Amino acid sequence: IILIDTGASNAWHPTMGRLPEALDEAGIDAGRVRAVCFTHTHLDHIHGLVLADGRDAFPRLARLLVPGEELGFFRAEARLERFHSMAEPFEAGDRIGTHVDIVEAHGHEAGHSCFRVSSGGERILIWGDTVHVPSLQFDRPEVTWEFDADQDQARESRLLALAADDHCFVAGAHLDSPGVGRVVRSGASFRFEPL
């Protein structure tokens, strides 16, 4: 199993870091996760490699893929020191296995990337923080926010990501529950339709 992003674990707040429970609910044994790919290296996306009690979240992890532009940041994160040597860089345009393509979406961070997964005639775009404030940014995708490292680039990549695949599913870290749905055009803006 390839997992995209791991969440925050308990690094920010005790109510965050519910990935282990979500995997259990979905019937997925964490021991089956063999690869983790990160959309970017903000702490709320990478700290879930370590459980609240300090154990590895994925005991059989064999591969860890990090945006090449952010590899140094990942390797500087002390909490994740035991994973530093495992981290491999990727670039937009790379392919993971036969079903996952990496799509550039820089702006939120230098290496922020999306993962387009295709299987059985369906597609889902896992887009990390492409949209961070859904109540505002679907209606007004030109709006950026203070945590976008390069706001012009974030705006451009958000518009491209929103317009890229009208009929694919999307999944994002900061989308309204359940975090998965479809983006549909609504005049000059967009609308998110959760599953």
Topology at a glance:
Layout: E1 2-4, H1 19-25, E2 35-37, H2 43-46, E3 63-67, H3 71-76, E4 87-90, E5 95-96, E6 100-104, E7 113-119, E8 122-126, H4 134-137, H5 151-164, E9 169-171, E10 180-186, E11 189-194
Parallel strand pairs: 1-2, 2-3, 3-4, 8-9
Antiparallel strand pairs: 5-6, 6-7, 7-8, 9-10, 10-11
Short description:
The chain is of the alpha/beta class and 195 residues long.
The CATH first-level class of the largest domain comes to: Alpha Beta
The share of residues in helices is 10-25%
Q: Mean of the pLDDT scores? A: 90
Strand content: 25-35%
Our Rg estimate from Cα atoms comes to 16 Å
| Outline type | globular
CATH topology of the largest domain: Metallo-beta-lactamase, Chain A
Q: Could you give me the name of the CATH homologous superfamily of the largest domain? A: Ribonuclease Z/Hydroxyacylglutathione hydrolase-like
Taken in chain order, the helices and strands follow as: EHEHEHEEEEEHHEEE
- Number of helical regions: 5
The CATH architecture category of the largest domain equals 4-Layer Sandwich
Low-confidence stretches: none
Please provide the count of β strands: 11
Cα-to-Cα separation, first versus last residue: 23 Å
Number of domains: 2
